[in-house]
Write a structure and sequence with these properties.
heterodimer; A: 482 residues; mainly alpha; two-stranded antiparallel ribbon; 20 helices; globular; B: 497 residues; 75% helix
């Protein structure tokens, strides 16, 4: 391994080293503040090393990892998302849990896994990253041990994720047996061919692999775990699943299933289109009747993954940048939404039922305003990040004439608007009784989480009003794909 | 720099009045009033300084790069048409602030914040000549309007607000697809990404593409207008909204739909516009009759006025697609005078509700006894709404019918029947509320000075447009001529005066 390879691996190594250091420090002395500080410093160092690492990019390291500007862009996104998760979880853990330090350890490991996914170029590293991510998540989802729903959600995720991993593994094995290669790049070849060339074995393997990927992204029909796990997991973990876990997997999907020129064609194109349409419609329709905000956001995340697939399917020169931009916008927004919910959660229960938001605007105008902005961004109203994301997807789709997908997107996002409005209506309704809830409505706002929320609100507007610098970076990174 | 500052004043004013309202609600009201007034004065300034016809297409414009990768520019411009509608916007804006002075007592700051932001969005819609920016403002005026209805509305406000939002959002997204597709087609034929109105005018489209794209725009504007089958959101939203909300909805939001048709649909898609003109005119006539007939049957005062809007906007649709200059000018005059007369009727309904705490016609009657001045004002606006000569609406409707008769005599005759129905609802309104015996023995305070000022000014404007519409016609003519020449070039040469 050359010196340059070493430099290129810096971000990954720093984050994993942070996990080790954190583990040692917990062994010596338990201290929540120290643990949080070490993890934040580690993530910051990882972010700081990205410019150095990208100075030697693009570089294929050891046949497992490909480190180019695309990987580094996604690593940056994932690291920043993790930073926000940490900022939100600090007070949440202070309020709710005895053993707080391992939380950071697990999140760091999971983040490493997601980063490996974003950079992997080989079946082995793909699976390694996936498992690193999944195994940490099993523990994270059930982290609040006193909550029955959390344990239930953890077990549900364990069973389903383990079986989906084995399906994925079987798919990879089939492909290997046919092609004799472990390179992820063969997906690009299979998906771009129009179907008649690839054998049944390859196609079966591809479909099984897509099942595994689809499970992590929670797209229809692999979405069944999402509402329960979102609801049961502690809020910061839900935020983590919605952002880092999905972001890492999507980075891999976008890189290897996106033949340049046009989007996925043939059988895989058809399957992905069906998945996209089903996700957009199912997600938004099922969200309509929910009364738990976490479940609403879970179903909405299914729909949003559908929108992302539209950009992936559109392909062309705009497809990959549009997908990345939308993902960035979505991550910022959903972090903000879950962040708001975390801030409002009390020591005994989370603010997840729709009723706990009744009249929020008249009790806490600023928090409610931030939540409003996040919801409007999810709905895709102009001046927010979500709108420009949607605009880029529409442009990408229109330039490749994917009209069916675009119309489904428009219709389903109108359906989606309905339940975002429902939350808004509740927030702006008259409070029923004057502030009897002593638990969450009167406690002071935690500082780190508030700062994080303010930053995210700013980012939503920044991405919605000044997209040019972000777009240029994304286009440059996506250009690297070909 | 004047054009962006029109928007900025409203945005900043909105935020300021929200902040100030914690200390003193009255200060918030004054801030809102002053910021709309400043805009009104600035617009009047533009109008007076450049009254004549300038050789350039726009009287004033500003143009910044915004998202260069897609050729999106923050491009605002006004011609006579936009300027007239902007003047209407700020005039009704002032009226809306004044008419909610005593009606809104809770959350005064947030109310004025939303009111001013709606006006800012409408201002942007009337000025944007970049299609992306246009769409942005189009959506942006939706959110504050949603809050206005949803928070300060009447009994079924949530239902009405949600319905309003969903209707406009779905149609708006279809328009967004059409806008993006238009830009992409332009890119494919010229290699340049642009959303600029004047560059997209020269996009070469296949007839099929033009027809489909036009549909995207048409649906958005027809919902907002509202044209006949898409009107169902309107009675609910108008009835449930607070007075200021109803004034802005009826007076301004509906006009953005008509404005969109004139500014974008006719010039961008001249071919399909000609093809669809008979259909759209028929829809207009159906709207006129349907709205008028339903208005006669209403028992809720605000609902009655809401259905008259459907009828009046039918005239506007008819005038826009009649395909000649006279009808188009009539449509714009109708837009302005309908904004004032219907706005006034909603204000009147608000005053009555504030005093009587009901909107049911059966609870009213004989109010002339106790409130002669208010009842007199009511009679004037009812007459304006039914199209009495000498008041604004008559001029608009007459010009529309005149123009329509040239292109399609049969439809013009049917549309005239709408005026008959208008007489029915106008008289029903005037008689049912103000005349007859005072069965419920109301004794109520008559108009206060503030209310006098509001309704008096609106009356003066209506009489002015009714007797001397030339300033308005002169202002809008160049802008309309530009739209007209592209869309109906053969026709306009035919009937050149």
């Amino acid at each position: 391994m050359s010196h340059a390879d070493f430099v290129a691996l810096f971000p990954l190594m720093i984050v994993s080293a942070t996990a080790v250091i954190l583990m040692l420090s917990i062994a010596i002395r338990r201290n929540h503040r120290t643990a949080a500080a070490i993890s934040l410093i580690g993530l910051a160092a990882g972010l700081g090393s990205l410019p150095f690492a990208s100075s030697v990019a693009p570089r294929q390291v050891t046949g497992f990892l490909i480190l180019d500007s695309y990987s580094f862009l996604y690593m940056a996104i994932l690291l920043i998302a993790s930073v926000f998760v940490f900022l939100f979880s600090y007070d949440y853990l202070n309020r709710r849990q005895e053993q707080r330090e391992e939380f950071y350890l697990l999140v760091l490991l999971a983040t490493t896994g997601a980063m490996v996914l974003a950079a992997s170029s080989n079946f082995a590293s793909f699976f390694l990253g996936l498992e690193l991510l999944s195994v940490s998540l099993y523990a994270l989802i059930a982290y609040i041990r006193t909550e029955r729903v959390a344990i239930e959600a953890g077990i549900k995720y364990l069973v389903l994720a383990a079986s989906s991993s084995s399906v994925l593994l079987f798919g990879l094995a089939l492909i290997y047996s046919e092609s004799g290669s472990m390179k992820l790049s063969q997906f690009t070849a299979i998906t771009s061919s129009t179907g008649q060339a690839s054998s049944v074995l390859l196609l079966t393997g591809l479909m099984l692999t897509l099942t595994g990927i689809g499970f992590k992204l929670a797209v229809v029909p692999f979405h069944l775990w999402t509402p329960d796990v979102y609801e049961g997991a502690p809020l910061p973990v839900t935020a983590f699943i919605a952002t880092v876990s999905k972001g890492g997997m999507f980075a891999l999907l976008l890189r290897w299933f996106n033949p340049q020129g046009e989007g996925p064609a043939g059988a895989s194109g058809l399957v992905l289109s069906i998945i996209a349409i089903a996700s957009m419609l199912t997600g938004n329709l099922l969200a309509l009747r929910q009364t738990n905000v976490k479940r609403i956001l879970a179903y909405s995340s299914i729909a949003h993954m559908g929108y992302l697939l539209v950009a992936l399917l559109a392909g062309g020169t705009l497809g990959a940048p549009a997908a990345t931009y939308y993902l960035m916008a979505y991550l910022v927004t959903i972090l903000g939404a879950f962040g708001t919910m975390t801030i409002l959660s009390g020591s005994r229960s989370e603010a997840s039922s729709l009723d706990s938001y009744r009249g929020l605007f008249w009790r806490r105008p600023l928090v409610a305003a931030a939540f409003t902005i996040m919801l409007l961004s999810l709905a895709g109203i102009p001046l927010t990040a979500g709108f420009l994301g949607k605009f880029y997807i529409l442009t990408a789709g229109a330039s490749q004439s994917r009209w069916v997908l675009l119309f489904t997107l428009v219709v389903s996002s109108t359906i989606g608007l309905f339940y975002y409005l429902r939350i808004l209506v509740v927030m702006y309704a008259q409070p029923v009784e004057p502030a009897t809830a002593k638990d969450s409505s009167t406690q002071p706002l935690p500082l780190p989480a508030t700062l994080a929320l303010a930053a995210l609100t700013g980012l939503v507007f920044l991405l919605g009003i000044v997209p040019t610098p972000f777009w240029n970076v994304i286009v440059a990174a996506a250009h690297n794909l070909s | 720099m004047i054009l962006p500052s029109l928007i900025m004043i409203l945005i900043v004013g909105g935020i300021a009045s929200w902040i100030v309202a914690r200390r003193s609600p009255d200060a918030a009201r004054w801030i809102a009033l002053v910021s709309v007034m400043v805009d009104l004065v600035m617009c009047l300034g533009i109008w007076i300084v450049q009254p004549g016809q300038t050789p350039e297409r726009w009287r004033m414009e500003c143009n910044f790069a915004w998202i260069p990768q897609f050729g999106i520019r923050f491009h605002l411009a006004v011609d006579g048409l936009s300027l007239t509608l902007l003047l209407l916007t700020y005039f009704l804006g002032v009226m809306a602030v004044l008419s909610s002075w005593t009606e809104i007592r809770e959350k005064v700051g947030f109310f004025h914040f939303n009111l001013l932001w709606v006006l800012a969005g409408i201002t942007g819609v009337f000025m944007a000549v970049d299609l992306f920016v246009f769409y942005l403002f189009w959506e942006l005026m939706l959110v504050p309007m949603y809050f206005l209805i949803g928070i300060w509305g009447h009994e079924r406000r949530i239902y009405a607000a949600t319905k309003f939002f969903l209707f406009t959002q779905l149609s708006g997204l279809l328009m967004l697809i059409a806008i993006v597709a238009l830009a992409v087609l332009h890119h494919q034929s010229t290699g340049v990404y642009t959303f600029d109105y004047q560059q997209l005018l020269h996009t070469s489209l296949s007839p099929r593409a033009a027809r489909l794209l036009m549909l995207g725009f048409l649906i958005a504007f027809a919902v907002k207008l509202p044209a006949f089958p898409f009107h169902t959101w309107l009675p609910d939203a108008h009835t449930e909204a607070p007075t200021a909300g109803s004034v802005v909805l009826a007076g301004l939001l509906l006009k953005t739909g008509a404005y969109g048709l004139i500014r974008f649909v006719l010039p961008l898609f001249p071919g399909p516009s000609r093809e669809l003109a008979p259909l759209m005119m028929t829809i207009g006539v159906v709207g006129i009759l349907y709205g008028a007939v339903l208005a006669v049957g209403q028992t809720d005062l605000k609902r009655l006025v809401a259905y008259t809007s459907v009828s009046h906007m039918g005239f506007v649709l008819l005038g826009i697609f009649a395909g000649n200059q006279i009808a188009l000018e009539g449509a714009v005059v109708q837009m302005v005078s309908h904004g004032i007369s219907t706005g006034a009727l909603f204000i009147l309904a608000g005053l009555l509700q504030e005093r009587l705490h009901t909107r049911e016609l059966s609870q009213m009657g004989g109010l002339w006894e106790t409130m002669p001045a208010l009842s007199g004002a009511g009679l004037v606006f009812a007459m304006a709404s039914l199209g009495l000569p000498g008041l604004g609406d008559f001029v608009g409707e007459f010009l529309v019918l005149l123009g329509t008769y040239r292109s399609n005599a049969r439809l013009a005759i049917f549309a005239t029947l709408g005026l008959l129905a208008a007489t029915l609802y106008g008289l029903r309104f005037a008689q049912g509320v103000f005349q007859g015996p005072n069965r419920h023995h109301w004794t109520l305070p008559d108009m206060r000075p503030r209310e006098w000022a509001v309704l008096g000014l609106m009356m003066i404007c209506l009489v002015w447009i009714g007797l001397y519409p030339h300033p308005v016609l002169n202002t809008i003519r160049p802008g309309l001529a530009a739209a007209q020449q592209i869309a109906f070039s053969q026709d306009s040469q035919e009937i050149k005066r």
